[in-house]
Amino acid sequence: MRIISGFYKGKKIKGGADLSIRPTTDKIKEYIFNILQDFPTDKIVVDVFSGSGNLGLEALSRGAKKIIFVENKLSSIKVLKENIDSLRIPEDKYKIIQSDAIEFIRINKIPIDLCLMDPPFIYPQLQELLNIFFFNDFFNQESLLVVEHEINNPIGKESNLYNILKQKKTGRSLISFLEKRA
Known about the structure:
Blueprint: H1 26-36, E1 44-48, H2 54-61, E2 66-71, H3 74-87, E3 94-98, H4 101-107, E4 112-117, H5 126-135, E5 139-150, E6 162-170, E7 173-180
Parallel strand pairs: 1-2, 1-4, 2-3, 4-5
Antiparallel strand pairs: 5-7, 6-7
């Protein structure tokens, strides 16, 4: 894996040794950030299910103010820390939180401008997570959520909490861009 664009362009980053982890491919990452364009610049970005930090590190490379990595597995956090160290990222540019995604969303008080979410393909709580996420006040109408999920684990199209701005199918993945409803 590599950083595609920005300050750390071309730098290689490690994936996890755990073969059950499915890192976002460069092709999907490039698609996501081509849609986002300059949106991450000077924004607070949260990378939920961060794994090795692939998406969050890309956002940081493209000018995000700060990245909050949320990951539950210690083995993934170890790889994430190695990637952060190899890129020599200053400590004031990131925070790592070891937490279950739903628990983090329930207790979070940090305003979020952009959330990047790449849950495991077999993640039956996806809709519950999205509902909790959009119900909270830390995410406003100018914020965006980008979620990569399995096409067989779709998100509800009808919601009084969020609008689906764009979706794209690529292989087994569906990339969904969402915003909070007014």
